[in-house]
Amino acid sequence: MMNTQFKDQVHVVAGATGAIGSAVVSELKNRNLNVIAVERSKQAEGVENRKADLLDLDQTRAAFKGATHIYLCVAIPYDIKLWEAQWPVVIKNVIQVTLEEKAKLIFLDNVYMYGPSLQVPFNESHLQDPITKKGKVRKQVADLVIKAINEDHLNATIGRSADFFGPKALSSTFYISFLENILKGKNPQSLAKLNVPHTYSFTLDNGRALVELGLSDSTSGQVYHLPVSRPVTVSEIMSIFNSTLNTHFKATTVPGPILSILSMMVPVIKEAKEMVYQFNNPYIMDDSKFRSQFPNFKTTLLEDGIRIMSEYFKK
After folding, report:
1. How many domains does the chain fold into?
2. pLDDT for res 3
3. What is the dihedral of CA 88, 139, 189, 202, to 10 degrees?
4. Mean pLDDT of 79-89
5. Structural contact between residues 112 and 134, judged by C-beta atoms closer than 8 angstroms
6. 156 — phi, psi (to 5°)?
7. Within a domain: residue 292?
8. Among 98-107, 125-134, 225-234, 276-285, whose mean pLDDT is lowest?
9. Confidence at residue 2, expressed as pLDDT on a 0 to 100 scale
């Protein structure tokens, strides 16, 4: 039965089958809201589906027609050339259509625009001076949204996620060469130093948090860090996985010289190499702005999130 309080709302989720987009869809369905999923080719279950390539303005218009809320959760392949070419086009198309529909945009962002010099814990007002190519793209994209908010009265909220983990999160540092190796009976490998604390976001928490931002009128025009776990090291993560899976693996850090060689052979490592600074020093997000505005929001315990992720990928 549809939620009568929000019966006139139409929530359209772009990237609806991804790790976080699917969590947004699930939360909207749990709240009995009117949901439409947008993907280029895949299908989300249990909701209306529309196919669209957001690089095409006309397809973007068709995808978001009638929307009151637009959740932009798309993931462009982890390739800097694609990011530089496609992200500005996608965000400009989405901004234009959001304005045309008089909808609210809820944009899933990341934290690449921060650093590498950080004062931890860092909040939404931290200096943005990225030196990486990916960080510069992400800052450019977020700045376009903020410019449209200030100059064109775009109704939008930005939710910035830490490195995330959970079901479907194939690009997670918890999965690539980590849980992936464990499930193959091999010791996990990490690009990160084993003893450096880092905060992470759980995908299902991100989905719930983005819906909270979408439904609250008071979040318009603002940037929020989505809620994160307690800071943990790779060694602590390894212990939790071992306890969860009843295993006895030991994590290792990929040595610098080996990383350089692998980056020439493995595309995803080549692309990730410039972001390794996030794991060489404490990288701790401050999510107090979100938590103070939504004091009843409960995050998933890290141990429970790792158990849920492990069960998903064991299937």
Report:
1. 1
2. 63
3. -90
4. 97
5. yes
6. -150, 155
7. yes
8. 276-285
9. 56
pTM exceeds cut of 0.85: yes
What is the distance between the alpha carbons of residues 241 and 181, in angstroms, rounded to a whole number? 12
**161 lies in which domain range?**
4-165+201-228+286-299
Q: Please report whether residue 106 resides in a domain.
A: yes
Grade residue 277 by pLDDT with cuts at 50, 70 and 90: confident
28-77 pLDDT, tens per residue?
999 999 999 999 999 999 999 999 999 999 999 999 999 999 999 999 99
Q: What is the 3-state secondary structure (H, E, C) of the chain?
A: CCCHHHCCCCEEEECCCCCCHHHHHHHHHHCCCCEEEEECCCCCCCCEEEECCCCCHHHHHHHHCCCCEEEECCCCCCCHHHHHHHHHHHHHHHHHHHHHHCCEEEEEECCCCCCCCCCCCECCCCCCCCCCHHHHHHHHHHHHHHHHHHHHCCCEEEEECCCEECCCCCCCCCHHHHHHHHCCCCCCEECCCCCCCECCEEHHHHHHHHHHHHHCHHHCCCEEECCCCCCECHHHHHHHHHHHHCCCCCCEECCHHHHHHHHHHCHHHHHHHHHCHHHHCCECECCHHHHHHCCCCCCCCHHHHHHHHHHHHHC
Q: Is position 182 within any domain?
A: no
**Burial class of residue 130 in the structure, from the number of CB atoms within 10 Å of its CB (0-12 exposed, 13-18 middle, 19+ buried):** middle
Check pLDDT > 80 for residue 280. Answer: yes
